[in-house]
Fold this protein.
Amino acid sequence: MLFFLLLLFKIDYNLTNMKFTLYALLLSVLTISSCKEEKHVKLPPQKLKVIEIIPRTVPIYREFVGQVYGKSDIPIRARVEGFLDDIHFKEGSTVKKGQLLYSIDPDPFKQDVATEESRLAQSKTNLIQKESDLERVEPLAEIDAVSKRELDMARAQRDAARSEVRAAKASLELAKINLGYTKIYSPLNGLIGKTLARQGEFVGKDPNPVILNTVSRVDSVRVQFFLSENDYLLMAREYKAAKEEKFKEEDSKENVQLILSDRSTYKHKGHIDFIDRNVDPTTGAILLQASFPNPDRIIRPGQFGRAKINIRNAENALLVPQKCLKELQGDYSLFVVNEENKVENRAVEIGLAVDDFRLIKSGLKPGEKIILDGIQKVRAGMEIVPDLVEFESRTVK
């Protein structure tokens, strides 16, 4: 009897569990069905910022690292050897042409002058004697009182004495020149730097400095920079294209800007006044020089900067912000919004960089709209709500 009751209880328990399992299974199916319905809900189009591509004329620039030199940088040299007697200027100050800068002990050179003066006096005395001898011999030679050989010898001695006088005069002049070199004057109006020798030093011979200082004319400055062979060819072609497009000559006179080390732009523009004869075969670069006015004397020799050159003005150029471009293995593309407000992934060919823009050579037409922000979330074929805005560049106006 007990066994029969236990069997009934087990059957009832199994039925109850089966009902619970069926209820749980039904609930799971309803939940999954509900989730699938939610996944198929279509989201509204996303609002994204777009810009319209409008053709415009823009200047094309390239930047090159360069170093600043004075309009004239004249080294001050000790042209004679001796002890530095005195320094007659303040380091780092402005000096005038002809201003006394250094003086070297003149006593040894004064002695040389005195020696050469004495030698010249002796030579002149000797010349007078030889001329007197010749004057006595010539009348005697006319009456054959002396031989022709004695006459020729007297004339030769007179000519030799004259040569000695000329040599003595030249030596005296050289001694005076060397004495003059003990006073060193400024060759131009300019800015003088730190002296490389001090009072009492022996100068004019290594290891002591032969160049004592440098005076620079800084009312205008020169910036020298190098172009790679590829950059040079690019610029040459662009200038040639600009000439063919009949750009005005005055537009290319002052077409170089100077970007200083703090990234500020120097307020005065310059112009290229020198292009080297050849490309250096060891570096593959060519030297260029641009001159800039420096009326405020702000720019100093030795500074580094970047020469920003206006290669040409691009007419009807299509520019896109660089942030809109995607790059994959050297190929570039961007997202274009068509007339149905759907996104297209468009391959483009890019040109030169213009600040934070890129020139587009092909793949884009005027008036088309491209996505500005959120390109990481965009996919081709996606429908959006375009929000037309203007890209605010920090550099291009």
Notes: Residues 61-69+219-314 form a domain with the Elongation Factor Tu (Ef-tu); domain 3 fold (CATH 2.40.30.170). The chain is about 30% helix and 35% strand. Helices lie at 2-39, 107-142, 148-180, 229-244. The two ends are 103 Å apart (CA to CA).
